[in-house]
Amino acid sequence: MKKVIILSVLTAFSALVVSCKDNDDYSQIEEVFPTKIDSVKIPMDTMSLGVTQEILAYSTFKKTCEGIYSYDYNYTNDSVRTIANFAYKTNEICGDGTYVDGSRINFKPVKTGIYTFKFWTGKDTTGTNTFLEKKVVVE
Predict the structure, then answer these.
(1) Mean pLDDT of residues grouped by 10 in the chain (139 residues)?
(2) In terms of domain of life, where is this protein from (predicted)?
């Protein structure tokens, strides 16, 4: 019985020591924020109904500490879409330079007409949102 008690105490102590181990040897996301879209690639500005095309929205990030997290795709109305990229920042020290990455958005229209895509490019000096607008005609 004495051996069982000693073994139980040692097991509990080992579990306590392991659970308190500091695991800060990997990067952690500290912040997620909207980031301006620098450029956009829309392969077809005229397309057929029911066809899917991939729209690419590129942003610039600091090396080793930032990257693409996600994107936000909102239907303003039947024909207007507003898109914003979101970036993450880790607890890593940022490296020298930048790199470009972005979101890949699959667009499959459900009706004919002119679709307007508004890509968020930041805020102007008055704090108003600014957008890069692209149009796609669906026949």
Answers:
(1) 52 55 74 97 94 96 95 91 96 94 94 97 96 97
(2) Bacteria
